[in-house]
Amino acid sequence: MSANNPMDIMIGASEAERSDPQAAQRHRKAASEAGAAGDRVNEIAHLRKAAAADPSNVHNLFALAYALDLVGEEDEAIALYERCCERTPAPVNALLNLAVLYEDRGDLSRAEKSLKQILDTNPNHARARLFMKDVLAARDMKIDDDHDRDLAKRTALLDTPVTDFDLSVRSRNCLKKMNIRTLGDLLRVSEAELMGYKNFGEASLIEIKQMLQSKGLRLGQRLEEQRRQSRRELFESLRGSGNEAALARPVSEIDFSIRVRKALQLLGIQTMGDLAARTEAELMGVKNFGATSLTEVRERLTQHGLSLREIQS
C-alpha cells in the first residue's frame, strides 16, 4: 500500500504497520463506549485506530464507514464501504449503505449495481428489494424530471404561486388550507386528495384541471416523486432503529380485511412502505373504502410504527 494513498491518510494506515487484532479490539471497545456516551469524535477516532491496527478486518472498516456516514462524512464513508465490498463475498450491509449514498448523489447506475449484487444471491432480500424499487423509480423519474425541467424553463411556472392564476376564491382558499402554495405543489396531489377535502367540489376540480391543461400539465404529474420521497424519509427516520424492515413487509402478510386488500390491490400497493406513502384521500377515493377500512389501515400502520402520509409532508 503506497504511503501516498489517500486511504492511508483517512484511516491512519501505512505500509510499515502490521496487523494487531488485539489492539484493534481494544479500540473497538473504546469506540463502543464513546458512542454509548454520545461522544462521536472519540468514537470515530478509536474506530480509525482499530481500522489501522487491523486493516484486513472488514468489520473495522464497516464500523468506521458507518460512523462517518452518520455524521455526514459521505466521501470517506463511500470510500470505506467500497473497500469493504472488495472482499468476497461483499458484506450485504455495506452494499445496502453504498446504494443509499449513491442514490442520494444521483449515481443511480452504481446504486443499482450494488443492489443487484445482493439480489443475485438473495432475490428475496426485503430491504434490497425495497431500495431497488426506489432506484428504478428514480431512474424512470429522471426522464420525467428532465422533461419537467425543460418545461419549467420554458414556462417558468412550477414555482409560481397558485394565487397568480385565475381561480375562484373558493378554490384558492381550499388550496391554501391544504398547504398547496405553488404550481409544483399542485402537481404532487391527486384528484382524490383534492376531492377529499372539505368544501372542495366538482366545480373547483374542473376549474383547476382546465387551468393545468392550458399549461400542458396535469394533477398528480409529480405524485410518484412525492411518494418515493416519503418512503425515503420514512426509511431515514427509522434508520438504525431496527424497524426499517417494516417498510419492506408485504401487505399480503398483514391481517387486512378482504375489502382493504382489494383497495390496496387497485392502488398497486405491495408493501407497508408503499401504503405509508399514500394519503387518506387516496384511499378514501377507492370505491367501497370507507371510514371503517381507513381505521383498520391506520391501526395496522401504527402497529408497525408507521402512518399515512399527510399532504403537507
Quick take:
This protein is mainly alpha-helical. It contains 18 helices and no strands.
Topology at a glance:
Blueprint (H helix, E strand, L loop, with lengths): L5 H6 L9 H16 L3 H14 L4 H13 L3 H11 L7 H13 L3 H14 L4 H30 L13 H9 L5 H4 L4 H5 L6 H13 L8 H16 L6 H4 L9 H9 L5 H5 L3 H5 L6 H13 L10
Please describe the structure with a list of short key phrases separated by commas or semicolons.
313 residues; DNA polymerase, domain 1; 18 helices; 64% helix
Describe this structure in words.
- This protein is mostly helical.
- It folds into 3 domains: 6-135, Alpha Horseshoe (Serine Threonine Protein Phosphatase 5, Tetratricopeptide repeat); 157-214, 5' to 3' exonuclease, C-terminal subdomain (DNA polymerase, domain 1); 223-303, DNA polymerase, domain 1 (Orthogonal Bundle), CATH 1.10.150.
- It has 18 helices and no strands.
- The protein has helices at residues 6-11, 21-36, 40-53, 58-70, 74-84, 92-104, 108-121, 126-155, 169-177, 183-186, 191-195, 202-214, 223-238, 245-248, 258-266, 272-276, 280-284, 291-303.
- α4 runs antiparallel to α5 (74-84), α5 (74-84) runs antiparallel to α6 and α8 crosses α13.
- It starts with 5 loop residues before the first helix and ends in a 10-residue tail after the last helix.
- The model is unreliable at 1-17 (pLDDT under 50).
